[in-house]
Specification:
This protein folds into 2 domains: 2-85, Double Stranded RNA Binding Domain, CATH 3.30.160; 107-190, Sigma 54 modulation/S30EA ribosomal protein, C-terminal domain (SHC Adaptor Protein), CATH 3.30.505. Helices cover 32% and strands 38% of the residues. The chain has helices at residues 14-30, 72-100, 120-123, 146-156; strands at residues 2-7, 35-45, 48-57, 62-69, 107-115, 133-144, 160-165, 171-176, 182-186. The chain has a 5-stranded mixed sheet with strand order 5-6-7-8-9. Strands 1-2-3-4 form a 4-stranded mixed sheet. Strand 2 (35-45) and strand 3 form a beta hairpin. The longest helix has 29 residues, at 72-100. Belongs to the HPF/YfiA ribosome-associated protein family. Long HPF subfamily. Required for dimerization of active 70S ribosomes into 100S ribosomes in stationary phase; 100S ribosomes are translationally inactive and sometimes present during exponential growth.
């Protein structure tokens, strides 16, 4: 497994990198997962250290967690414990997903835009009401079943996930509702 361990405006020592690699590997091996690569980023937030970790699995799914504490090692341990809890919760489903899926998840490329929020930029908006694009990047849209999409959204800790439905081929969106339930928008239902 490849690791990318870095810090935002803080130095990350060799001892911390070794600790992160060994502990994260141990956590992932406990659930018999085949990770391909992991990214761990440390940063500061006032007097707290923040650790954000994302691990890409060979099945195409991602696991993400975020921890914070007053010491850098404790921030990593908080992050690792949250990832462990997510993996324990989804262990059976992850294994079943791997058995059912003979091939890794396929991804389609798409453009993603960041639009200007209300404020100074909105005052300069042209009369034709076209939004002002601040940034443009490429993103990947996975081909998943609805159950896999919900699991991926939960593992990534994301508020929503856009995916291509393997069964219908349509674009779908799963999202966390304010009442705590999961919403599913199915564009193939209106065809």
């Amino acid at each position: 497994m490849r690791y990318k361990i870095s810090g935002r405006q803080i130095e990350i020592g060799e001892a911390l990198q070794t600790h992160v690699k060994s502990e994260l590997t141990e956590t992932l091996e406990k659930y018999s997962l085949r990770p391909t690569d992991g990214t761990v980023i440390f940063s500061r937030d006032a007097h707290y250290f923040v650790c954000e970790a994302t691990v890409h699995l060979s099945t195409g799914l991602n696991v993400s967690a975020k921890g914070r504490a007053t010491e850098i090692y404790a921030a990593f341990e908080d992050c690792r414990e949250k990832m462990d809890k997510q993996l324990r919760r989804y262990k059976r489903r992850l294994r079943d997903h791997h058995r059912e899926r003979a091939q890794p998840v396929e991804f389609a490329e798409a453009s993603m835009y960041v639009l200007a929020a209300n404020g100074e930029a909105a005052e300069a908006e042209p009369e034709d009401l076209q939004p002002i694009i601040i940034a443009e990047t490429e993103t990947r849209i996975p081909s998943l079943s609805v159950g896999e999409a919900v699991m991926q959204m939960e593992l990534a800790g994301a508020p929503l996930l856009v995916f291509r439905d393997e069964k219908t081929g349509g674009v779908g969106v799963v999202h966390r509702r304010e009442d705590g339930n999961i919403g599913w928008i199915d564009t193939s239902a209106n065809r």
